[in-house]
Amino acid sequence: DVKVTQSSRYLVKRTGEKVFLECVQDMDHENMFWYRQDPGLGLRLIYFSYDVKMKEKGDIPEGYSVSREKKERFSLILESASTNQTSMYLCASRPWTDLNEKLFFGSGTQLSVL
Amino acid sequence: QKEVEQNSGPLSVPEGAIASLNCTYSDRVSQSFFWYRQYSGKSPELIMSIYSNGDKEDGRFTAQLNKASQYVSLLIRDSQPSDSATYLCAAVSGGSYIPTFGRGTSLIVHP
């Protein structure tokens, strides 16, 4: 069974800190995604990656960057955390072979920026 | 911008009733559609996927797709309290292959 692991379930950071959210998948999926989820706003795409070292901006990339140096790992970076980045962050993966394939989600990281 | 619209609810139905969840999408080249269920504090899990016009049934769940009207729905028969959750509709564009999610509909099934 596919497993998508996010390194932390809960994180508390201070304004201005550099924050790393890590996501690892174990099924050799090419595509990986970072979403944030806020009450009433659904899932909004921050960044996605088609494959290693490839990245594309999603709908709300401002204040974020990503890194995909290895196929199994997709990192989301908050360069200087702000209170409006307090949110639930969801990582997901999908094989490239079939665009109709569902997304496999991690368990999420609830980030609080104080 | 591609949009997927859902009524946020909450939709409240009695146990045993049919729950009907609806979704519209703006991108005409969307070609695959997904319904995910999300319990509070948990990540989304796939309930149904549908790619062709018409109905697709899986147990108590039926997904319906009408591409001409750009409309997707999910019917839940014999609703149970355990069905109480937020249901997310997602559409995948044939161009970008990126899933776009709606804001979700909160379903409450009361005994």
Average of pLDDT of chain B: 93
β-strand percent of chain A reads: over 45%
Distance between the termini of chain B: 40 Å
- The gross shape of chain B turns out to be globular
State the helix count of chain B. Answer: 0
Features:
A: mainly beta; 4-stranded antiparallel sheet; 11 strands; about 55% strand; B: about 110 residues; 6-stranded mixed sheet
What does this structure look like?
The complex is a heterodimer of chains A (114) and B (111). Chain A starts with a strand and ends with a strand. Helices cover 0% and strands 53% of the residues of chain A. In chain A, strands 2, 4, 5, 6, 9, 10 and 11 form a seven-stranded mixed sheet that branches. Chain A has a four-stranded antiparallel sheet with strand order 1-3-8-7, with no helix packed on it. Chain A is an all-beta fold and 114 residues long. In chain A, 36% of the residues are buried. Chain A is built from no helices and eleven strands. Chain B is mostly beta strands and 111 residues long. Chain B contains no helices and eleven strands. Chain B has strands at residues 4-6, 11-14, 19-25, 30-38, 45-50, 54-58, 61-66, 71-76, 85-93, 99-101, 105-110. In chain B, strands 2, 4, 5, 9, 10 and 11 form a six-stranded mixed sheet that branches. A five-stranded antiparallel sheet of chain B has the order 1-3-8-7-6, with no helix packed on it. The N and C termini of chain B lie far apart (40 Å). The model of chain B has no long low-confidence stretch (mean pLDDT 93). The A-B interface holds A 31, 33, 35, 40-45, 48, 58-59, 90, 99-100, 102-103, 105-108 and B 1, 6, 8, 31-32, 34, 42-46, 49, 51, 88, 90, 92, 94, 97-104.
